[in-house]
Amino acid sequence: MLASAHYQWITFFFLLFFFASFLFIFAPESIVASSQSFLYPAASTLVRAEIFIQNPAEYVLPFIGTTNGGHVFPGATLPHGMVKAGLDTNSPDNQAGYDANPMYDAIGFSQLHDSGTGGWATLSNFKIWPYASCPSFTECPTHPTKRAVPRKLLPDGSVDDAASPGYFATNLSTDIRVELTATHRTALHRYTFPSNSTEPRLLLDLTTDGMKQGYKPTMLIEPIKARITGDAWFQGSFGPGEFHLFTCVDFKGEGYDFGNVTEYGSWHMHAVEPNTITFSGVYSGAAGAVLTFSPATNGTTSILTRVGVSFISSAQACRHAEEEIPDWDFERVQSDALGQWNELLRRVQIDPTGVDEETVQLFYSGLYRTHIIPADYTGENPRWESSEPYYDSYYCNWDTFRTLFPLFSLHDPERFALITRAMIDIWRFEGWLPECRGSTLKYWIQGGSNADPILSEFFVKYHEYAALLNVSASDLYDSLVTDAEVEPGNWDLQGRQATEWVNLNYIPDGRSGYGGASTRQVSRTLEYAFGDFTISQVAKILGKTTDAAKFTLRANGSFNMWNSNTTLPGFPSVTGMMQLKSKDGVFDKYTDPRHCSVNDPKHATCYLDPSNHDGFYEASPAVYSQYVPHDTAQLINFQGGVDKFIERLDILFNQSYFAVTNEPSHQIPFMYHYANRPGLSTKQSRRVIFESFNTSINGLPGNDDSGAMGSYTVFLLSGLYPIPGTKQFLLSSPFFPTVAFSNPLFNTTTTIKAVNWAGNPPDGVGTVYVSNVTINGVPYKSNCYLEWDLFRNNTLVELTLSDDPTLGCGSGADALPPSLSTGGFD
Ligand SMILES: *[C@@H]1O[C@H](CO)[C@@H](O)[C@H](O)[C@H]1NC(C)=O
Ligand SMILES: *[C@@H]1O[C@H](CO)[C@@H](O)[C@H](O)[C@H]1NC(C)=O
Ligand SMILES: *[C@@H]1O[C@H](CO)[C@@H](O)[C@H](O)[C@H]1NC(C)=O
Ligand SMILES: *[C@@H]1O[C@H](CO)[C@@H](O)[C@H](O)[C@H]1NC(C)=O
Ligand SMILES: *[C@@H]1O[C@H](CO)[C@@H](O)[C@H](O)[C@H]1NC(C)=O
Ligand SMILES: *[C@@H]1O[C@H](CO)[C@@H](O)[C@H](O)[C@H]1NC(C)=O
Ligand SMILES: *[C@@H]1O[C@H](CO)[C@@H](O)[C@H](O)[C@H]1NC(C)=O
Ligand SMILES: *[C@@H]1O[C@H](CO)[C@@H](O)[C@H](O)[C@H]1NC(C)=O
Ligand SMILES: *[C@@H]1O[C@H](CO)[C@@H](O)[C@H](O)[C@H]1NC(C)=O
Ligand SMILES: *[C@@H]1O[C@H](CO)[C@@H](O)[C@H](O)[C@H]1NC(C)=O
Ligand SMILES: *[C@@H]1O[C@H](CO)[C@@H](O)[C@H](O)[C@H]1NC(C)=O
Ligand SMILES: *[C@@H]1O[C@H](CO)[C@@H](O)[C@H](O)[C@H]1NC(C)=O
């Protein structure tokens, strides 16, 4: 994640602060709607892939992680839609606009948004606000601090808000019901006023975005058309620069014609200027328009508000709105959105028999959250002209490269291809691949250049389909090499500290970066090394053997940071840690391995913070000392062998070094696999689910990180953990008797079925350990990982479960998951 809600950091640039089956299985009616099935085209065995859950969207709980720092967006959006219509509150945790905590008031209903990010609240643009009654037109409270009102509360004290994929609703304390739905670039709002509201009014706030105000707004009210067009400039969330955003807002009575608007005017701060259609002299501060409408004469007054947005022009915003919602049919828009969500979520099927509903909800809610961002802004890129797709909101690749994109490999390759093309296009026009990006702006880099493992992940799995998917293999490779070897002017915003990396094969202590902070040298080195490993996999596929050898060698740079003399305080047997090194190759600066963990006596943090001078980013040295995903076998040697490695992992867990809140820890629960003790991985990864993820509004351990936590949940519940840029998925037992991934490009379904599956014992003790694996009935080489090939065919993977936690990966030469130093990945 980025700056957590619990920490603050100061930017010098803004002078502002922020927080920072193959059988028919019978299950309860409520869950199974399995009338539909289809036949596998497999030549050998004719098998039936079952649809266990026809409408998975019913299990999505959009409010998971919407308070206590989860920063999840619960509003209305299509999968990867540009428009994300949602309720904005005055919470300091309003990065996604919303906060489920009733102590925060509603201040508007805005059109864009990110989800699960840190940084600064942004994309909460062009808020609409309803008034049931103002003392008079000019006395409507306009400024967000004055117009704020609580939401209604339910008997249990929670807010009266409801949401489902593509739909959001709230009841305000002013008796106004607000509902939101969305198409790709247009929001549709419905404001239903109380029956005694004789002068229903709506305000448009053109400038208030999260905690910052936009500036240089322009506006035109067309009272006869009941249309407002406008634009303003806004600052980004996590980096320098600004973006220009346009809107086109139309109003219509639902079920009646309200005629002309009866009153109109502009407003600035607290003052309404009646009968004005533009601003005069407004440069900054909250500003916009207010309109009064005739109420319905028979029945309830509902005003539909259609909001188009564009990064190009107001005219384009109007075009989007007119093309996407010509019929003003709220129910039609809502049902189309729901249909798109169900089609996408249905690709991953689980058998819910014997599983509690909360686990099913956790699964599909996690899958849902992986498809909120990146957002598809194709046709909306103001920075260069290109016929390629344009996706934005990579916030940040550092968070999402480990699990989110590998999940796309399993069920959404077409989307993955579009995002890959969009990233390559950013390289074409900006020189380097994006790392962190939002609102069309480059954001601060946290560690490595993590588009590299993302593009490598795509290519390793889909290179035979690259041409079909219009992904240029040569441009993809060139963009990776640029990232790896060409240093940009400002490696705080793109690329790498490439010169030092190429020359020294590690990032030395000494230089400073963002705001005077250290450059996170150790975590950077480890990420560059893994990045280069993934590039070597692409080079190999392309037949570039010299390059492949070079990048493979550089990947070994991880071990340049290993200081064999550093021990974990209190645990002298834990010897050797990743540490800062000078450019002369000397470990002359000690970083306490507890640094930035819950055990840190200095309670230091390691966010992007000018006061961070210790070389690590968002995880302790103890955690980073596990981070060499491409060569865990060698790491085991460095740590003193298998027994010491297992002991160290145990200590990481029993002393709370494992920190689920941030992604560098995410592979650790599965690392016992490399020591031939997969049962311990099963135990720990199941504990992660039970202890840290649940379906409540605070059910996330910190930020969702743009779906990174959602994808992590899906993998853990599936009994899988991916190594990006490789063909392997580490394997454990699923939380369901069956998990199946359908791939629309291959037109295949891979079904993982757990034989002897007997539930999910909360203490991890039970029939949850994989004793053997068969593929279409034939014994498999390993009980510890699955190869990508199995996901390219209609495959039945059967795991036989046992209650013996001491079982190993198998006895064959390929039973352990691969590592470079033991000849893996060839
Ligand atoms: C996918 O497979 C099904 C079942 O074999 C077949 O009916 C269908 O035509 C295939 N679709 C495509 C696009 O190949
Ligand atoms: C709001 O109030 C309406 C009418 O009383 C009710 O149908 C609805 O369930 C309430 N809650 C939401 C979130 O719409
Ligand atoms: C409408 O009725 C509500 C509750 O019955 C009341 O609080 C409100 O003041 C009324 N509004 C007007 C404009 O009469
Ligand atoms: C709307 O306003 C225009 C201009 O003031 C006027 O010509 C027209 O008659 C009005 N229409 C209605 C339905 O009030
Ligand atoms: C209101 O009256 C009009 C005209 O009489 C009718 O067309 C419309 O359906 C009515 N609306 C409602 C909500 O009853
Ligand atoms: C790839 O490009 C061709 C030619 O521009 C186009 O016809 C085709 O639809 C594209 N395919 C995809 C998956 O974008
Ligand atoms: C990788 O680095 C380690 C430590 O520096 C060294 O022992 C090992 O030989 C290196 N491996 C290769 C293939 O260069
Ligand atoms: C570890 O300590 C020994 C003894 O002081 C020293 O000789 C050696 O160079 C040190 N190794 C590192 C990597 O600092
Ligand atoms: C933690 O793990 C270590 C290594 O296995 C073990 O020696 C120690 O007893 C464990 N401590 C606790 C509190 O479980
Ligand atoms: C739900 O998860 C959150 C975040 O990990 C945790 O703080 C909270 O205690 C959990 N709630 C329950 C009821 O387990
Ligand atoms: C798989 O494991 C189960 C349970 O341990 C055992 O009964 C069975 O014989 C094993 N099958 C194979 C093919 O090894
Ligand atoms: C799976 O698919 C791949 C690629 O299409 C093919 O090479 C492989 O032989 C297939 N394996 C099986 C077991 O069908």
State the end-to-end distance.
Answer: 33 Å
Assign the structural class, choosing from mainly alpha, mainly beta, alpha/beta, alpha+beta, or little secondary structure: alpha+beta
Supply the CATH class of the largest domain: Alpha Beta
Helix share, percent: 10-25%
Describe the structure.
- This protein has 826 residues and is an alpha+beta fold.
- The protein folds into three domains: 2-34; 57-342, Beta-galactosidase, Chain A, domain 5 (Distorted Sandwich); 388-822, GH92 mannosidase fold (2-Layer Sandwich), CATH 3.30.2080.
- The strands form eleven sheets. The chain has an eight-stranded antiparallel β-sheet. A six-stranded mixed β-sheet has the order 23-32-33-37-34-35, covered by helices on one side.
- A hairpin with a 6-residue loop joins strand 17 and strand 18.
- The radius of gyration is 27 Å and the shape is globular.
- It starts with 8 loop residues before the first strand and ends in a 24-residue tail after the last strand.
- 59% of the residues are buried.
- Bound molecules: 2-acetamido-2-deoxy-beta-D-glucopyranose (12 copies).
- Residues 160-162, 169-171, 177 line the site of one 2-acetamido-2-deoxy-beta-D-glucopyranose.
Short description:
This protein has 826 residues and is α+β, with helices and mostly antiparallel strands.
